[in-house]
Every structure is written in structure tokens, then in C-alpha cells.
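Teaching assistant here, posting this on the class forum so everyone can see the example we discussed in section. The complex has two components, and the goal was to see what a joint structure prediction looks like when all of them are supplied at once.
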Amino acid sequence: MPTPLRLGIAGLGTVGTGVVKIVQRHADLLESRCGRRVDIIAVSARTRDKDRGVRLGDYEWEDDPVALARRDDIDVFLELIGGSEGSAKAAVEAALESGKDVVTANKALLALHGQALAETAEANGKVIRFEAAVAGGIPVIKSLTESLAGNEIKRVIGVMNGTCNYILTRMQDASLPYEDVFDEALKLGFLEADPTLDVGGIDAGHKLALLASIAFGTQVNFADMEIEGIEQIRIEDIEQAADMGYRIKLLGVAQLTARGLEQRMSPCLVPATSPLGLLDGATNMVVLEGDSVGTISLRGAGAGEGPTASAVMGDVADLARGFRLPTFGQPAESLRAEQPASSATPAPFYLRMTLRDRPGALAKIATALGEAGISIDRMRQYSHSASDAPVLIVTHKAQRRDLSLAIEGMKATGVLVGDPVAIRIEDL
Amino acid sequence: MPTPLRLGIAGLGTVGTGVVKIVQRHADLLESRCGRRVDIIAVSARTRDKDRGVRLGDYEWEDDPVALARRDDIDVFLELIGGSEGSAKAAVEAALESGKDVVTANKALLALHGQALAETAEANGKVIRFEAAVAGGIPVIKSLTESLAGNEIKRVIGVMNGTCNYILTRMQDASLPYEDVFDEALKLGFLEADPTLDVGGIDAGHKLALLASIAFGTQVNFADMEIEGIEQIRIEDIEQAADMGYRIKLLGVAQLTARGLEQRMSPCLVPATSPLGLLDGATNMVVLEGDSVGTISLRGAGAGEGPTASAVMGDVADLARGFRLPTFGQPAESLRAEQPASSATPAPFYLRMTLRDRPGALAKIATALGEAGISIDRMRQYSHSASDAPVLIVTHKAQRRDLSLAIEGMKATGVLVGDPVAIRIEDL
């Protein structure tokens, strides 16, 4: 008779209660699939007296997640508290040091402290699993680490923040300005307590940093990621992009180049009919490119109780089955501290700006671009009644830093109203 | 110093040489990811003297795959010969009985003999892995068995024969008849030696049977699958479907219902803008529906050297890492011999037929449908110059067997020219 796998769950929010529900509902299914029972022994949350819609009476209660992590009667500590510091971090460290494996949905914690935590885990002969931290129920960590183990990974691309994708597609579908849709998302509870985490690209950036580490065997390095949020995107940009056959997505791209590790999270124009362009609403998609497998795309819900709890339980099932892997797919000490890329891969850019309607204004802009070595693929000045003229430019492939120089030059001409918006075009 | 994982490879066709290339190219990558070396010890193929574009001189050669399978100096036997009987089957049995794990890309072998082979594997404490048998490089077996281990699987849907999807999309894109595109595919080498395996839906049916077993914990049962190929699809069907906002796909669907296990592989109309409807060319897609995860879609190349070899190497890496699972995700003896569904889930159907242009013909057809209890959602008779009139009918939801009765009734009226074509509509 095999021994049960004993869980301690810290954090009983959406994900934590979702996990409890699965363990209760599918006890037999889990046993037949894992060859042993999966039992919850103890739980912990900030407040004990709260109706969470699940039976908790059979489990031991701990007020302190660190005390839960140190209990002798659990095998696996589930960290579902969240946040990169504080009790989540302390409890994960305590769990590893006291000989527990860890399953977590905490992208911020691992993006900021992943290397140190992976080293702690290995020093204690334990593992950290975090499928739920990236793209909800989509099996992207497992696909990269295990299914594609025979591939050199060429590139990882993803739309991994459902809230941003919801905002961008809703703006387009309803022809609404950013501010209105942002308020809608706020009311719907789609945004983090600090909305900058979502719309500033930080949450998605955390996820990309984790995928990059696994894909390229490098130390997780969120600090050096190029990050831009969607706050600058206006309905005009979405409509102009659509007019050219594109959609705007908050796109993460990671690749290892001769210039170092390129990691960027930014709004991009992608072809409207590509799988990423067609991704509507809060759905997530991750595209993995390997030297043998070619391109595979994984699509599904990136958040929510069910999908995230499903991913947590996938990790739990692996541990129940005795599958053990280093945190980032290979020993922490073997992960390289790769230099961040000195420059991103060149790409065409979309530029939108407003010019003062005066003779020679457009020529001055074109000159500023030319002086920075950027050539123009297409340019349109829209008819207008006001004294200011909206102008749209699509450049040929350019370096982002050359474009920044060009934008400085354009501003110096004095013919611009406000700042230009520059969005990378990814012809996937 | 961990011992290397020692491979014996039987079959050096496209997939076999692909695997050899990966092991040679990525020896170091595999070692860092798996924590041990992966070495090829011996190989076998029908002809020894043939330039396969890879170095084979370092490996032992066996003329007989069964002898290779029995060698004492290998840990894992890679069966890349193909075919459900003969040497592939004999060699897999020999490997298991002599204490080797097996990795195979052979869908036919497992669809027809999976239960017996799984039992043999378990009796010998060994495992069979077959990610490469279903949808090439797409990690669908692993996702189902491991990532979704906490889910009750509700339904599995897939476009899993790239050749059929190529033919159907090429017919539409180039407005070419089935026969012309079939000949093209033949010349391009896209078809199996026996093309019926592809266009008759058998190859895709084998894959679906394997997924159903894993998804529902049932014994693999290919014999009771409802299978229909794409040979009947005419360019008119594709154009009419497009006109109604649909695409025609060879779609596999498996679900466990109160009426038993439903498994069907048949052409279906799917919404043109759904992920499955948008799937062009030889690409594969599998959609998995779980009670917690919701719907996830996995998309990629379903065949070819790189993708298939990538999947084989994913399985090899798992074995190198010590990950061991029963063949169909739970012990073979625990798999239920589920009854095939007495009837498929009702659906609307598309019907195309040609009527003799005589008074009352359409009324007779409508009457035959009504007598079988099938109601009509839409009907169109096209203008025509000839004496025969093309008619298109979309029914309300109906049982397939009622529709068959109706078709018999329609034929008995004597107003039909040829047989009607009936295609299920799946509003995914």
C-alpha cells in the first residue's frame, strides 16, 4: 500500500480553494492516476472565519504559513499566497529548508528570487514546481522542460496577461477609448490591486522571465527585461493597425541571440489572421519554437480558479508520481548568467504622431528619421479639419535605439503635438 | 557519475534518422537537462547499405529488430518501424519481455494491440511511451496524462491527419476538385503507401482511440469507432460550407456520455473563425476540455522528421529522468472496457443532393425527412440550367441514425440523382 502524498496549503483565495475543491472532488481519480492518495493535511490563510464554499474542517489549521511550511506531517507545501516578498517568500524558504517540495503559482516570487530559491531547493534535495505561475492552465512549463527536452529552443513568444488582452480586444470590438475599458475591467475585478502590474506589462514580464530561463538554460533575469505597458495605446492605434491588417497585442518575446539574451514585453502589431492576432478576450497563448519541433502554439485560459488550480494539481500529480526535476529544468548551478542583449532584433515600427499643420512639417519629420538612419516604408497624413494633422508612418526594419534617436530629433523640430507613439511590428 | 541511458533504435526511416540526428547534435544539451548522457548503442533497419545522411558507424548493427530489442546493453528500445503487425509488434513484445522500456511512434500498433501491450509492459515492470504516435511534436499525450491529471476530461477533439487537412484546405484555396488535390498530395509524398489510411480517416482514428483511452481511463477500442473519410467531399460542399461561415475538417471527437463512449472520426463543418476552422495546411490541432482547466488547444506540425523525432526525444528524456507512468496513464488492469455509445450526440447536419427537376420532387424529400423525425432549419434549391437541381438542406439537431433512415426514405422516392452527402455540423 503506497503512502499518500500529504499537502499543506497556504493561501485560500481563488486558487487555494480551487485546489481544495479538486482534491475533494477527484480523490479517486487522482488515486487511480497517481497510484497513491493525495491528502490535504493542513491549511493556512489570513482569516479563519470566512465562508469559502469548501469544507475545511477535516484539515489542521495554521495561522502562520511559515509554521505550516515547517510541519513534519506534510510532504508538499503549496504556496498560494502571492507576492514576491513577505510571508510567501519566508514560507517557501522554510518549506525547502525543512525538507518539503514546493508547488507555487507565484510568478513574482520566482521572477525576482528564482535563482536563490532554486539553489535552496537543490541544497535541500527538494524541488519547486510552478506551472500555475505562467499562463494558467496551459501546460507551457511542462512542454518546454519535458516535451521539448530534445530541442534547442529558438524563441518563446506569448500573450500572457489576459487582462491586457481583454482591454485591447474590447477597445477594438466596442470602439471604446482605453480609459473606458480600463474602468470596465476594474469594475469586473480583472485588474490586480496594483493595476500597473497588469497594464504596465510587469505581470506578463515575470512570466516571460521564467520561460526564458527554462528555454535557454539561463538564470532568471527580470531586472534586465525591456518592458512597456499598454497605457499608451489609443483607439486610433488599434483602428489604424486593423486597417493595415494587424492587431495590437501585449507580446512577450524571448530569444538567445549573438548579442545576448533578448527579453521584451511590449505592445506589438501582429498579423490579424495569425493565431496570436486572432486571440480574443482574456485568453492566453504561448508559442514555442524549437529546432526540431518547429512551432507549437498552446492556447487556453490564463487565469481563474479552475485553470490555475488545474495547473497546481498537475504539479502535485507529478510529485505524487515521483517525477522530480530541477526548478528551471536543469541544476541551478548550471544556469548561465547570460548578458542581456545589447539591442533587440530589428523590426519595422508603426509610428503615430500629430503634426502642427504648417508648411514643411512633414518634411522635417522625414528628415529626422533619415538622419537616424531609419527609412520609411509607408506614410499617410490623414485629412483633418483641425489645425493639427494626424500622421502615420511605417518604417522599414530599424533598431529600437535608432528609433528613439529619431524620435528625439522629431521632437526637436517643434512641429509635433505631444509625443509620438511607436509600436513594434512582429510579422510572425 | 550517473550511468548513461542506452538506446537501441529499430527503424531508420524519416523518424529514426531524425532521432539519431538529435542525439548527436544535442548530446550536451540532453545531458545537462536529463542529468545523464543519452547514448545510442545499436540500430537496426531493413537495409544496411544506404546513405541516410547520418553517421551510424559508432553503433552496433542488428539486421533483426527482435535481436536488437533483446540486447542486454540497451535500456530503452525505440520502435520506429511502423505497422500494426509483423516485426514492429514482435520487437516491442521482445523488448518488454526482456526488460526494456519502449518508446514508439506507432499509432496503429497501439490502437490495435494497446491493451495487451500495456499489460505485457506492466507484467515486466516496464513502460511504453508514445507521444510521437499522436499529432507529431504536439505534447498532447503528456498534457492529458500529466498536466490535466486533476481534471475529469469532458471531451477530446482533434484534427490529427495533416494530409487530409492539406487536401481540404488546398481544395478550398485553389478551387480544385478532390481528385486533383489527391493526385497532388500523392506526388508530394504526403500520402501513406495505402492512401486509405489517410483519406479514409483510419490513421486519425488510431490517434483518437489512443487519446480516448488516456482521457477516460478506458481500454483502447479502435474497432468500435465510427469512421468516415473525406473521399466524399466535393468542392461544392467546401464552397457551400464557406458560404454559411463554415470550414470542412476531418474531425475526431471522443467523449464519455451516459450512452457510453462516443468516438467518431468524420468530416464536420466547423465555424470558419474558430481555432479549428482556421487550421490550414498540414497543421494539427488537438482541443482538450477538462472540468477545471476549461478548453485548451494545442497546435503544431503533426508529422515530419523534426516534429516526430522531437516527440520521441521528449519520451526518451522522461525515461532518462526516471519518469515512469503506465502506458495509458493508469494501470492497464484498471482501464474499463467501456461500451461504445449507442448513438452519437445529436447535431445539425448539412445535406447536399441533386434532384431530378420534376414537380413535387422537393416536397418528397421534405416528407422523407419529416417521416424520420428530422426537421429542416434551412433549405436552398440553386438555380440551374441542366435538368437536375442541386439542393442544400441544413437540419435541426438530429441523430445520425435517424438521418440515415431519412436518407433511405429519400432514395426510395426516386427523385434523387446519386446519393446525398451528409456532413455533421459541430458548433464548437
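For the discussion questions: Residues 90 and 299 of chain A are 33 Å apart (CA to CA). Chain A touches chain B through 60 residues (CB under 8 Å). Think about how each of these relates to the inputs above.
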